[in-house]
Amino acid sequence: MKRGFKAGSIVFTVFSLILSAGIGPAYAADYDTAKLVSTYSFPPVFQEVIADQTGSITGTVVVDTRYEADVSLLFTDEKGKNRGEIQIWNGGKEKLASGVTTKAKNGKERVLHPSGQSIEINIKTLTFTIPAKALDLAPGEYTVIVRGRDTAFFVPDVTREEYSKEKQIVLPDAGAEKVFPGGIKVDKDGTIQITIKSSAVSTRAKWVMVIIDENGEEVKRISINPKNPQISLGSLKLTSGEYTIYLEVTDGGDVLRSESAVLVIPTAGTAGSGAGNVGTGPGAGVGIGTGTAGNGGFVPSLNFPGQIRLSNDGTIQIRLDLTSEYAKARFTLLVLNEDDKVVKRIPINLKNPTISGKGLSLPAGEYALVLEMVNGGKKSYSSSISWTISTKSSSTFTIPSGASFPGGIKVNSDGTISITLEWKSSYSSYEWYVVVYDEYGKSVKRISLNPKNPVFSLQGLNLPTGGYTIVIEVEDTASGSWATSLPAFVTVNQTRDIVIFIDGALQVFQKSPVEIDGRTLVPLRAIFEALGAKVEWDEATQTVTATKDNNTIQLTIGSKVAYKNGKKINLDVPAQLFNGDTTMVPIRFVSEALGAKVGWDAYSNSVVISNE
Length: 612
Fold this sequence. Notes:
By secondary structure, the chain is mainly beta. Helices cover 8% and strands 46% of the residues. Strands 17, 20, 21, 23, 24 and 25 form a 6-stranded antiparallel beta sheet that branches. β18 and β19 form a beta hairpin. Residues 502-609 form the Copper amine oxidase-like N-terminal domain. It holds the Pfam family Cu_amine_oxidN1.
């Protein structure tokens, strides 16, 4: 089918070489650009194709205007047999046959040439309708492609052709019973799974999820975006109980309903009393309780594969039941204060899921501990437990921990660490240390500190690549009392590559960040999924769609404009596709799209992202 195009390419290349032989150096740059644009074509793109219940087809196609002389749909059946073609555009020169109607709209598109150069081409968007009588095809499944032809090519008897990617459509039996194009189910963890076959109905169809309570009363009707059929369980704001849910689609005068599913909202537990035995660790007491109150509104999921246990000495133990469905899940321990604000996010080391409470450097107070799981771009939470940290009363040790600690740590841009201490003569009998904890809360360095000359160098620690927390610790060996400063987060990078930290944890991606035109580009899918977003890729339109909570983000490869809930976001540099499978975006886009905090550590060549 493409022999004409290949022959044209060969002839055109030879012709270009002949012309180029006489071109002087002064015009070489202009000629290269002209040649680049003229020899690269943009294949047709199927934006949409829909077969309705009558057997008619509607759709939208984008074509390079150099290939608009003959734009046709080619059909093959399930056995791969050619079932004919129908022209949907002929350059607007003649009326289309068999009742086919097409509306055309001119435009321009910037595309990435295989050489890496961005070029602009003229395009035409074709919106077509083909009646069932013009198709003359039996009910069944068909493969459809778009073919664009350039019949005005200057080489005689040669026609250039370009083809789109394949699309699948199903032509229904007009007399058969209509089947709902999708379904709904509830997973073990309480997540609502919605599948929608939007190609079976028109783009004007309206989708909703209907919620029925135990008394058979309809309590909610929630609109569904068929391109992003995701619903946050927390957004439903349902009281505890059992509900029946189903999908409904209205397409013209037809209303179809899916099979129903059962959704159970668990009864909230009671908060722990916070009372407990005094811990054996120096200067701390621990109270333990379980429940969901005071957990920052994180609704516990059914059958969450893990739980938290707290020892009297302040050690936090994580028990995980990891089956194959959680093989790629990422777990994080959330620490919430009395105001239900997340004050710590600690990644869980699956090989050793134990965290030192002391290493968290938290001041006395009431806290809640919750496990967060990100699996396939979805977030779920465990039940919480309460945790009380109380400072041991002592008349001989009055140094407080946290914000009131008489000193602090500042990480400088050159990798040095400045330590400040409000020195008092009464502190002379105490022992002072700088303590370094890894991302799992394990102490990896404990260095004696001279409080009168607190000089410290990050480079001198000789730490492997990773994220670390550093605190100043002072201890009264006579009483066993101790206090710590507020922690400082530092990044260490012993590689030559750009590295990424998310919530203090070093990330390992298949594609490392890159720097282009002074801008750092990072892998979108890996980072968005790590931040709890679901990412989908549309190969036909080269478009990425990401959803998190109630936000929908869309961007197209090669474009410097993205959209968040329909509002424009301007990018420093366009989104780019590397190795044909990795979408790279500037780091600032992560912040603007998902509300995450994004920073750059020039000394360690690191991107630091916080989910809060």
